[in-house]
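DDE Tnp4 domain-containing protein (Stephania cephalantha), 209 aa
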Amino acid sequence: MRYRGRKTFTSFNVMAACDFDMCFTFISAGWEGSAHDSRIFLHAINSPSLNFPKPPEGKYYLVDKGYPDRRGYLVPYFKTRYHQNQFENVGPNNAKEVFNRAHSSLRSCIERSFGVLKKRWKILNAMPQFSVQTQIDIIIAAFALHNYIRKNAQDDNLFNIITQHPDYVPLDELPDVIDDDINHGSYRETSLEMKNIRNNIASQLWMMR
């Protein structure tokens, strides 16, 4: 089934970007759950009609390992400890692990934002059997309301909990991406620049530890 995702049940694969204030800055909804993250990503950045907010020169998005390693998008090191809970007992042992821990800490903002979104709008976890387009409209509305509440609510319990516990990430939101080597072919030339940036940041963080 097209809409049966990696977790076996029917679902959409929604691509989203957010800022550090936990407001979503871009969403692409409607892809079937079986669609790979990299496919959705490439469609989003290469489709002018979607108006994807590409990073300015010298800036970049923090993305997980499911995305191509190309200019403007910084992925973590593969086959290296990454999630915060993996460092609870033993701290980073090398520059790559220091980088990954910092990357995970900053990128957790998107996971926490999704956690608030799905906690508030239960319908997203158990969507009624509406038409596909109606379900997509509901998803988009949920994101829009999330942003409205974040920007305008004086006191919101869900956001307060997340703010008070900055390292908290709902377990359901931890990425389940495996270490696929998708960085090949047309990505090779552009990924070299980001690999150099990643290595430079890792070296600086390791020296500052």
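Residues 60-208 form one domain. The helical segments are 37-46, 95-120, 132-152, 157-164, 188-208. ok done for today
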